[in-house]
Specification:
The protein is α/β, with parallel strands linked by helices and about 200 residues long. The chain has 8 helices and 5 strands. The chain has helices at about 10-20, 20-45, 65-70, 80-90, 95-105, 120-130, 155-165, 180; strands at about 50-55, 110-120, 140-145, 170-175, 190-195. Helix 6 links the parallel strand 2 and strand 3 (about 140-145). Keywords: Signal. This is Acid phosphatase 1.
């Protein structure tokens, strides 16, 4: 596993993110999700506990401006630098995902936002950022508490999904930009991977 984007690949990642291919690939995945949601609505009633899980970073809101300063993943991950960026609360919405979010809420699904961001340090900034970008009406925002500090995203998110399932939620769909959003236990009926070549979260 590469800890950073290899030097010889940085220009290709930059071009991918900035010159249209990322947006086109994102639209393809969103269209697949929309088709799946339409099929669900045709074959069954949406119940009070039918849920979708959405990741936050580079799923709902974009960190592209931050990673531009990190050579699109060519520099090592900087936890303090990213925390300072996230605390500013200026991440823009990823527009196709915002439209999907709105359609899911309007369709009667319970949308749960599940992120590896630390609640203590980034809770207030994250909620404000989401609200300012139009993510209003979600069922719950779940962030990483101190008991999960240092654990992998797969372990943390699997446990959160397990708890949701035990509460009675049926996870109809699960959307994220990292494979660690979509693997492990209780992943849901369908998973959808959004493009992101800039970094990898285990």
């Amino acid at each position: 596993m590469w800890r950073t984007v290899p030097v010889q690949c940085i220009r290709y990642v930059e071009n991918y993110m900035l010159w249209g291919q990322y947006a086109r690939d994102l639209d393809v995945v969103i269209e697949q999700i929309n088709n799946y949601v339409r099929d669900l609505a045709m074959v069954e009633l949406i119940g009070d506990m039918d849920a979708w899980i959405l990741d936050i970073d580079d799923t709902c809101i974009s960190n592209l401006a931050y990673y531009k300063g990190k050579r699109y993943g060519g520099d090592p991950f900087d936890p303090a630098g990213f925390k300072a960026w996230a605390q500013r609360g200026v991440c823009p919405a990823i527009s196709p995902v915002l439209r999907l979010f709105e359609e899911l809420v309007e369709g009667g699904f319970k949308v749960i936002l599940l992120t590896g961001r630390e609640e203590e340090a980034l809770g207030a900034a994250t909620m404000e950022n989401l609200h300012n970008q139009g993510f209003v009406g979600y069922e719950r925002l779940i962030m990483r508490g101190p008991e999960f500090k240092g654990q992998s995203a797969v372990i943390f998110k699997s446990e959160m999904r397990r708890r949701l399932t035990e509460e009675g939620y049926r996870i109809q769909g699960n959307v994220g930009d990292q494979w660690s959003d979509l693997t492990g236990e209780y992943i849901g009926d369908r998973t959808f991977k959004l493009p992101n070549p800039m970094y990898f979260v285990p």
